[in-house]
Structures are given as structure tokens and as C-alpha cells.
Design a protein that fits this description.
Distance between the termini: 41 Å
Number of strands: 0
Strand content: under 5%
Shape: elongated
Order of helices and strands: HHHHHH
Number of helices: 6
Structural class: mainly alpha
Largest sheet: none
Helix content: 40-55%
Number of domains: 2
Low-confidence stretches: 147-168
Mean pLDDT: 77
């Protein structure tokens, strides 16, 4: 019995070679989205154009506005649920960071807010995945906590080619 392999041709000219789905000419990953069960309009939001522009997060009203923008983009289908969940988590961290005013150095709070805004912007522009954003948010949360205020995030926030560990 001979098994049929995927007939998809890669950009380099070679064939995929994975086992094709039963009764199909291609493997699961090379099937058109309609045949995979994903409606054509529900593609992951990974375009060059961000679905919206986040405001700067310097007070609670900015954070509330950003939450509304994320929810609107989720409801309209301009943002996938994983990216939306990571953005809401980042906004929660930004809110917690603002609550530290008076108990922490202003420079620490500013560095934390700028880092959070940078990660959310990278996620919205499709430069990092939701998983990478989650890792960066965790590193920022650790650095913003009182026990690890001196944590050096330079290597964590950098791109893979510059030695950044979280983006690999």
C-alpha cells in the first residue's frame, strides 16, 4: 500500500513530502483555510498594518481607553484572541505599575511603562508572537517587582540577532 504525500511545492522548488490527508492532495498545513475549518475572514491578525494605535499609558484613563480599543478590535475580528489576551495582560501590568506611584522611584515606573508599551506595540505590528509577548511581559513583571528592581532586561528584550533570549 502506497501512501500519498503532499503535492505542495515550496518556494525553493522542492515538494513538501509530508503525508497527505486521506482523500486529499495536500497535508493539513497546506490545505486552503476553508478546508481546514477556519473561515476565510478569521485569519490571524498578523498584517503589517496594526489594527489600532495604542495610546501612551501614563494614567488610568489611558489604560481604560486602550482596553476599549483592544475589546473593539477583538469584537470586529481585527485582532486574534491570543494577541488580545496578551494585550489585556500587558494593560493589567501597566495599571499595577501605576499603582506603585509613591512607593517606587519615578524612574522605575517610567522604565516599566515604556517597556510595556514597546512590547504591546511590537505585538500589534506583528513583529513578535503572542507567546513571545507573554515571555516579555513576565520578564518586565519580574523586573518591576520590588525584589528584582535591578534586573537587567537588555538581553531579554533584544532581537535574536542581538542576543535577546526571549524572542528566540
Amino acid at each position: 500500500m502506497r501512501l500519498q504525500t503532499c503535492d505542495y511545492v515550496k518556494p525553493d522548488g522542492s515538494r513538501c513530502g509530508a503525508l497527505a490527508l486521506r482523500g486529499q492532495a495536500q497535508c493539513y498545513f497546506h490545505q486552503p483555510d476553508e478546508q481546514r475549518g477556519r473561515p476565510p475572514g478569521k485569519q490571524p491578525a498578523r498584517s503589517c498594518e496594526p489594527p489600532f494605535e495604542l495610546p501612551e499609558l501614563w494614567d488610568f484613563s489611558d489604560i481604560q481607553e486602550a482596553i476599549q480599543l483592544v475589546l473593539d478590535a477583538l469584537m470586529d475580528g481585527r485582532l486574534d484572541s491570543r494577541a488580545g489576551a496578551k494585550l489585556v495582560y500587558g494593560l493589567q501590568l501597566a495599571s499595577n505599575n501605576l499603582r506603585r506611584i509613591g512607593r517606587a522611584e519615578p524612574e522605575d515606573i517610567e522604565i516599566g511603562q515604556v517597556g510595556l508599551m514597546h512590547v504591546m506595540d511590537q505585538l500589534l505590528n506583528g513583529r513578535i508572537t503572542p507567546r513571545q509577548a507573554g515571555r516579555l511581559f513576565y520578564a518586565l513583571q519580574v523586573s518591576m517587582s520590588g525584589d528584582h528592581a535591578e534586573a537587567d532586561l537588555t538581553g531579554w528584550l533584544g532581537a535574536p540577532e542581538s542576543g535577546g533570549r526571549l524572542l528566540q
